[in-house]
Amino acid sequence: MMSKIVRCGLIQCANPINDESVPVADIQKAMLDKHIPYIEEAGSKGVQILCLQEIFNGPYFCPGQDKRWYDAAEPIPDGPTTRLMQELALKHQMVIVVPLYEKEMRGVFYNSAAVIDADGRYLGKYRKQHIPQTSGFWEKYFFKPGNGGYPVFETKYARVGVYICYDRHFPEGWRALGLNGAEVVFNPSATVAGLSQYLWKLEQPAAAVANTYFVGAINRVGVEAPWNIGKFYGSSYFVDPRGQIVASANENDDALVIADVDLGQIDEVRKTWQFYRDRRPDAYQDLTNPDLA
């Protein structure tokens, strides 16, 4: 096996301001300021690829339907947060995956993630494809479904894919990322205790096994007022192509999770489990043909 070690990192953080009287921009600045030391720490510890949590620079505001949160959106890549992350990526020679609330034009918004290479270049973005609309998760009020497919980004250190939160319940996108050549897929999330918590350490390891790549699963921590929909339980982790969790954080604390992943393991596992050889796309027509569904 040809070994290729890549040091990867995840950041899970609680929102420091839970007060609706505070302007949106001030809440965003507080969350950004809280992340900067962790990003700097990642750089100082040699992290080569870093991913932040879903809509990292603010609370998860989707439990309500308050139009003031439209002001949290900004352009990608021409917004201030992407530009700042480009500077930090260049400073630390570190790839950074930056989940943001994206404004494409007036009245058109996406739940997105910008991918920045280690030389500070903006490589592109992923837009969340599957948008939930259920109690506590009124995301269709804030986001259009993604329209950019399942891109894989050729970074300095690895081929990186992104799949955001609710996306993880849909196996088709995981497979598409594998077919597009992903070696590490990040799933930035905002997930609370309750209905889906038992799935947290089931779905991503299963996806890593079925598609034989590494997965980084990120979740924020704490309870966010005024919505109080439950506890964001952290538990961010990396899982390898065999489904083994190789590094993780606890449920309650802000944390930087670091794992040295060996991309050579992908080849080793694929020589054993020939899922890409043995798949049968010719037999799956009913998945995409509405007349057969």
Overview of the structural elements:
- By secondary structure, the chain is of the alpha/beta class.
- The chain has one domain: Nitrilase/N-carbamoyl-D-aminoacid amidohydrolase.
- The chain contains six helices and 16 strands.
- The strands form four sheets. Strands 5-4-3-2-1-16 form a six-stranded mixed beta sheet.
**Domain unit count:** 1
Strands ordered across the widest β-sheet: 5-4-3-2-1-16
Which CATH-level-2 architecture? 4-Layer Sandwich
Q: Which word captures the global form?
A: globular
Helix tally?
6
Topology as H/E string?
Answer: EHEHEEEEEEEHEHEEEEEEHH
Biggest pleated sheet: 6 strands, mixed
Q: Give the uncertain stretches in residue-range form.
A: none
Beta-strand percentage?
Answer: 25-35%
Q: N-to-C terminal Cα separation, in Å?
A: 42 Å
Radius of gyration, CA atoms, in whole angstroms: 18 Å
* CATH-derived topology: Nitrilase/N-carbamoyl-D-aminoacid amidohydrolase
What name goes with the CATH superfamily?
Carbon-nitrogen hydrolase
The tally of beta strands, per DSSP, is: 16
Mean pLDDT: 96
Give the secondary structure arrangement, pairings included:
Elements: E1 5-12, H1 24-44, E2 49-51, H2 80-92, E3 95-105, E4 108-116, E5 122-127, E6 133-134, E7 137-138, E8 152-154, E9 159-162, H3 171-179, E10 184-189, H4 197-211, E11 214-219, E12 221-222, E13 232-233, E14 237-239, E15 245-248, E16 255-262, H5 264-272, H6 275-278
Parallel strand pairs: 1-2, 2-3, 9-10, 10-11
Antiparallel strand pairs: 1-16, 3-4, 4-5, 6-7, 8-9, 11-14, 12-13, 14-15
